[in-house]
């Protein structure tokens, strides 16, 4: 915009980030600061440098004999992904990382009061989509990325080394549809104001 100047208040340093997951169709947050709606589950602690939201549009170019540069560029696809490493091992987090699956309770023979649990990853064709919300806070500025539909679509590789924490790599691909926004951002940051 004409007349804009350097403004260090528009630099964002994500001092706190949170990831919430829920079944598709769960009520999304209406604004940037209200309590998170019922049904959105905080995945808990994540590594401090792993959270990434990537937007990856694809384009094709038309070339013509009359120009050394493309004479037309058009977008053919859009894609977006979320990456974050979860530090908390739990049943719901395993299901998120593996795209679903089931958890069953196992009774230990001879000691019925002792319970063990079995996680089984989803079979081919039974991965489940989830809704995701990424919350970013920088002082008094709040940002919420809302992704109505996303799905775990990558393999899972865990390092089980003795000398460092073992994390769960959550990798979600944004899913689209004609009847909803693939993703959107809600913020109270005054830099987004429509005022001229």
Q: How many H/I helical runs? A: 1
Contiguous low-pLDDT stretches (5 residues minimum) are: none
Mean pLDDT: 89
The radius of gyration computed from the alpha-carbon positions, rounded to a whole number of angstroms, is 21 Å
Report strand %. 35-45%
Specify the structural class. Answer: mainly beta
Number of strands: 12
Biggest sheet descriptor: 8 strands, antiparallel
Residues in helices, as a percent range = under 10%
- The end-to-end distance, rounded to whole angstroms, is 9 Å
Oligomer: single chain
Order of helices and strands: EEEEEEHEEEEEE
Globally, the shape reads: globular
Protein architecture, described:
With 196 residues, the protein is mainly beta. It has a domain at 45-58 and 77-190. Helices cover 4% and strands 41% of the residues. It has 1 helix and 12 strands, in the order ββββββαββββββ. It has one helix at 91-98; strands at 16-23, 41-42, 52-55, 58-62, 72-77, 80-86, 102-108, 111-120, 130-138, 141-152, 168-174, 184-187. Strands 1, 2, 3, 6, 9, 10, 11 and 12 form an 8-stranded antiparallel β-sheet that branches. The chain has a two-stranded antiparallel ribbon with strand order 4-5. Strands 7-8 form a two-stranded antiparallel sheet. A hairpin with a 2-residue loop joins strand 7 (102-108) and strand 8 (111-120). The protein is globular and about 80 Å long. The mean pLDDT is 89.
């Amino acid at each position: 915009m004409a007349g804009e100047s350097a403004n260090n208040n528009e630099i964002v340093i994500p001092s706190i980030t949170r990831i919430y997951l829920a079944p598709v169709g769960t009520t999304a947050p209406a604004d940037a600061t209200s309590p998170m709606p019922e049904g959105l589950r905080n995945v808990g602690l994540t590594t401090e440098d792993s959270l990434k939201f990537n937007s990856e549009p694809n384009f094709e170019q038309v070339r013509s004999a009359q120009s050394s540069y493309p004479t037309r560029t058009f977008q053919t696809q859009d894609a977006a992904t979320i990456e974050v490493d979860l530090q908390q091992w739990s049943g719901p987090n395993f299901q998120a990382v593996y795209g679903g699956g089931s958890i069953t309770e196992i009774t230990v023979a001879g000691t019925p009061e002792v319970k063990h649990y079995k996680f089984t990853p989803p079979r081919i064709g039974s991965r489940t989509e989830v809704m995701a919300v990424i919350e970013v806070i920088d002082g008094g500025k709040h940002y919420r990325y809302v992704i109505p539909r996303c799905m775990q679509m990558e393999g899972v590789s865990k390092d089980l080394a003795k000398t460092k924490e073992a994390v769960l790599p959550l990798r979600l691909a944004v899913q689209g549809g004609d009847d909803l926004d693939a993703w959107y951002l809600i913020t109270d940051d005054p830099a987004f104001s429509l005022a001229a």
